[in-house]
Amino acid sequence: MRLKWKLTVASLKMFVRQREAIIWTVLLPIFMIVLFGLVDFGGIGKVNVGLVGGSNGIGQELADGLGEVRALELFHGSREQELELLLRGERDLVVFIPESSGEAGGVVGYVNDAAPEEAQLASVIVQSVLDRLVFEVREPGNRTMLTVNTVHGRAETYIDFLVPGVIAMSIMQMGIFGVAFSFVSLKKRGILRRLSATPIRPNDFVLGQILMRLVVVVVQISLLVAVGVLFLGVHFGGSLGDMFVLGVIGAVVFLAIGFAIAGVSKSEDQVAPLANVVAMPMILLCGVFFSRSGLPDVVHMLTGFLPLTYLADGMRAVAIEGATLTEVLPDLTGLLLWAIVAGAGAIRFFRWE
C-alpha cells in the first residue's frame, strides 16, 4: 500500500505538470460554465401549463382551446404530480378544471411565485381562452373566472441545468481522452514494458494512475460547484458527498472505456477518432447542454441507456432537486452496470505493449 500511495502521488505530480491536462480537465469546464452563464437563456419561450381533471364539458373545451395557443406547452397529469412539478419550477401554471360548468369554485390555477413573468402570461392566456369560450359556446352573461393561487417554489434556471451536465461531461473527457491518449503514448514509448524490469509492477502503476484521476474528479466537482454557486447563482440543493459518489462511479466507467480504447489503438492517430466516436454522440445527445426532451422518441429512448445520461441525470437530480443516492438509484444502477461492462472491455482489449 505504501508503494501504491507513492505511485499515486507521483502520478498526481505528473498530471499537475501537464499544462494541457489542467486546461482540458479544469479550466475548460469552468470557462464553459461562465460562458453559458453569461448568456441569458432564461427569457420567456413556451409557457408550461399543467392540466388536471376536466375530461369532458368545459374541461375538454378549455383543453382544446389552450392547445391552439402556440405559446403554451400543455401537460396532463394528476394533482399531486403537477403540483410537485410546479414547486420544482417545471410548470409555470397548473390549472384544476371542474368536470362540469356547474361545479362550485370554477377553474382554479396555481402559479409559482419564483417565476412571476411566466405565471402572469399563462394566467392571462388561460383567462382569455375562457372568455372566448363564453362568447362562442356559452351564454355571454355567464363568465367563467380563473381563480389564481400562489405557491412558494423555485424557478429552475438554465445555469442550474447546465452545471451538473458540464461536471458529468468533464468527468467523461478526463476518463476517455486522458487515459486513452496518455497510455497510448506510454505504450508507444515502451515505458509500460520497461516497468516490468523494475520492482514496480505495471498493475501498481496503472492503479496509481486510476487513483490519481479519482482524486482529480473530487477536485473537479468541488471546484465547478463552487464556481457555479459563488459566481453564477446556481441553486445547489443536494449533498456534495452524493455528488462525489456519483462522480467516482462515473469516472470508473469512463476510465475503463479509456483503457479499452487505449488497448485497441496502436498510435495517437488512431486514438483520436476512436475517442471522438465514443464521446461526441454522448456530449450532443445525453442532455449535457440541453434537455433530451426535444429528441425524437426513439433517440430519446436509446440515449437514456448511455453512461453519460445516467451520470448527468443523477448529478442533476442531486444538485437541483436535492435527491439522495436512494432516490437516484436507477441512475446509480445504470452506472454500476456500465462499470461492469466497461471493466470487462478494458480487461479484454488493454495491452501493455
Polypeptide structure, described:
The protein has helices at 2-16, 19-38, 58-67, 79-87, 116-136, 158-188, 191-195, 202-232, 240-264, 268-285, 297-303, 307-321, 329-349, and strands at residues 47-53, 72-76, 93-97, 107-112, 146-151. With 353 residues, the chain is an alpha/beta fold. It folds into two domains: 2-39 and 157-349, no CATH class; 47-151, abc type-2 transporter like domain (abc type-2 transporter like fold), CATH 3.40.1710. Helix 3 (58-67) links the parallel strand 1 (47-53) and strand 2. Helix 2 runs parallel beside helix 8 and helix 6 packs antiparallel against helix 8 (202-232).
Topology readout:
Blueprint: H1 2-16, H2 19-38, E1 47-53, H3 58-67, E2 72-76, H4 79-87, E3 93-97, E4 107-112, H5 116-136, E5 146-151, H6 158-188, H7 191-195, H8 202-232, H9 240-264, H10 268-285, H11 297-303, H12 307-321, H13 329-349
Parallel strand pairs: 1-2, 1-3, 4-5
Antiparallel strand pairs: 3-4
